[in-house]
Amino acid sequence: MSADQVYAGVGLIVVLAVGSQLLASRLRVPALLVLLPAGFTAGALTDNVDPQRLLGNSFSPLVSLAVAVILYDAGLGLDLRRLKGHNRRVVIRLLWLGTLLTMVSAALFAVPVLDMSAQAAVMLATILVVSGPTVVGPLLAFVRPTERLRRILVWEGSLIDPVGGILGALVFHGVLAGSRPGFGTGFGHFLASAALGLGAGAVGAGVLWLVLRRVRLSEELATSVQLAAVIGVAAACDALRDDTGLISAVVMGMALANLPGLELPTRRPFFETLVSLIIGLLFVSISATVTPESLRHVVLPSLALTALLVLVTRPLIAHLAAAGTDVPVRERWFIGWMAPRGIVAAATASTFSAELAAHHIAGAGRILPATFVVIVATVTLYGLTAFPVARRLGVLRPARSRPLLVGGAPWAVDLARALSAAGLDVLMWAGADEERARIEAAGLELAPGELMASAEGFGAVLEGITDVLLLTGEDDFNALASLTLRESVEGAVHRLAPSAASEGVVAPYAGGEPLFDAGLTRPEIVRRYEAGARVVTRAADGLPAAGEHVLFVVRPEGRLVPVTDGVRPEPVPGDTLVLLTEA
Fold first, then answer.
1. d(CA 169, CA 129)
2. Buried (b) or exposed (e) across 331-354, using 16+ Cβ within 10 A?
3. Helix, coil or strand: residue 235
4. 340 and which of 18, 200, 378, 554 could share a cystine (Cβ 3.0–4.6 Å)?
5. Residue 522's Cα: distance from chain center in Å?
6. 3-state SS string over 311-353?
7. Which alpha helices (DSSP H) does 144-298 contain, by range?
8. Is the pLDDT of residue 453 over 60?
9. Which residues contact 458 (CB under 8 A, 6 or more apart)?
10. Alpha carbon distance 127, 285 (integer Å)
């Protein structure tokens, strides 16, 4: 290709990747619904976006390294200490039952229907095991099912990516081992590949853990060190044995997520942007390699496979996983209607199918187009039907707000009591032992875990939270936390206004509209409360009395509307006012 063609191809891939994600975010649909058609259409209309022509033999290794970064990031979310409570049994069953039943049903179906060898069918079935939070998360954010459903499905999606990545790499090497002459030699190659990936991942995780814990690094450098480590280890493993780097990457992520003494989530801000960009680039590039000719004899059989997975296998998995638990039947049916395939399925199919085809595994050339059809079909089906199904089953989350109040000062606890009395499900968090004891003594729910760590990962603190109210006595903390938490909650994040004469490092300059009327700064509220002011609630049956300040309006459906300097909600009959009264 000429230099002009390379410029045009690379530029178009990047623009399509980011533009598709931007369009999807505006349409509030999963990005895959836009990325896959965009890449496929571009690949059919022009040769410039064909990664095989742009990168040649480098395409497959680069895809493998990109997937290694994605799997490492997925492994970082695999903190097993957070998987607890009454949902643990369901999630664990979804993982092992889902893996087993999906592999068996898809493999048995693919052999006769897709005209594959048993080896290629098992590889395809293993690839289709994974779902992933990059697909499930946006769907759940749009549908807004009950908190329990959201928690179960997010945990399943977060855990199945690394589990499926490890299983896919192991099955891949097992298939290659089985194609070599001599069972003993093939099995030895399989064990050697697995041992190399697991061992290198463990060593890489240990070295990275020591560096991140013992060496004082900036946030940016800590992220760069992680990226270099995972790519370096994965590349070294792949150089020694093909695709063992995927195993090492997942092992590194899982090990670092569970090793003690390392607050890793606060060191991952860049990874979210990087992984999002990689996902877009991979989907556009991989879908561009799927030609109309390759789909000609695969579409109908793949749609039949999709129907089997969606209508039979997944509902059976969901009901078996929830058997003997207190999960209601309606929620079991919704779990059975939520299993879209995502980026790891596409990337691993692209990586493994080419290698297996090169080793003359019968039917391996159909793995990628079949996976492409299943991804498009499942994402489209669930994307269009998840909300009406949830509404029909009655498993949508109520519109009632669930605020998180951060801070345990006496007036903040008083405010939490008032919001609770107004019918809201209030959650509080505080760092100081004295404040936490005050919250518990008031009979209010105290959030577990670390607030800032949960903002970066999949912790329990922010699950289901619709509003965050930062009410601590540290203006700089309130300002910094508001910047960090804005992307981690569904609704708004508000903080108290600092004093007009504040000399804080961040608070006077951080953006965002602070809570309450002008003049009701944090020091002023504390002063008034100590002078006898209290937080009370009453029906919106008239104008506030002299000396009363409206802090919040709670709508009849339970929606919390805060008062700010620029927004003053108009109370209507049926509303509840939350007021600060004078002494």
1. 13
2. bbbbbbbbbbbbbbbbbbbbbbbb
3. helix
4. 378
5. 35
6. HHHHHHHHHHHHCCCCCCHHHHHHHCCCCCCCHHHHHHHHHHH
7. 147-178, 183-214, 219-240, 244-258, 269-289, 292-295
8. no
9. 77, 79, 82, 133, 154, 155, 158
10. 18
pLDDT over threshold 90, residue 315: yes
Residue 471 tokens, joined: 């009410």
Of the candidates 262, 257, 260, 266, which has an alpha carbon nearest to the alpha carbon of residue 79? Answer: 257
Contact 546, 517 (CB under 8 A): no
**Residue among 556, 442, 485 nearest 428 (CA):** 442
Question: How far is Cα 548 from Cα 399, in angstroms, rounded to an integer?
Answer: 28
Q: Are 425 and 416 a contacting pair, CB within 8 Å?
A: no
Q: Which helix (H) or strand (E) holds 576?
A: strand 576-581
Amino acid found at 370: A
Structure tokens at 562: 């805060």
User: How far is Cα 357 from Cα 363, in angstroms, rounded to an integer?
Assistant: 8
DSSP 379-399: HHHHHHHHHHHHHHHT-BPPS
Task: Give the number of other Cβ atoms within 10 Å of residue 219's Cβ.
Answer: 12
Asked if 164 and 126 touch (Cβ cutoff 8 Å), the reply is yes
pLDDT tens by residue, 21-68: 888 878 777 777 788 888 888 888 887 787 877 877 788 788 878 878
Ranges of beta strands (E only) in 448-508 are: 467-470, 493-495
Two structure tokens written together for 355: 């290698």
Neighbours of 358 (CB within 10 A): 10
Taking the alpha carbons at both ends of the chain, their separation in whole angstroms is 79
Q: How far apart are CA 245 and CA 213, in angstroms?
A: 24
Pull the structure tokens for residue 135.
Answer: 């697909």
Predicted local confidence at residue 490, as pLDDT? 64
In one-letter notation, the amino acid at residue 201 is G
The model's pTM is: 0.70
CA atoms of 106 and 341, how far apart (whole Å): 14
492: left (phi over 0), alpha (psi -120 to 50) or beta: beta
Write the DSSP assignment of 57-116 as a string of letters: GGHHHHHHHHHHHHHHHHHHT--GGG--STTHHHHHHHHHHHHHHHHHHHHHHHHHHTT-
Instruction: Report long-range pairs for 216-225 (Cβ below 8 Å, ≥24 apart).
Output: 219/266, 219/267, 219/269, 220/270, 222/267, 223/267, 223/268, 223/269, 223/270, 223/271
Residue for token pair 């009701």: 520
Strands laid side by side in the 493-495 sheet = 445-446, 427-429, 403-406, 467-470, 493-495
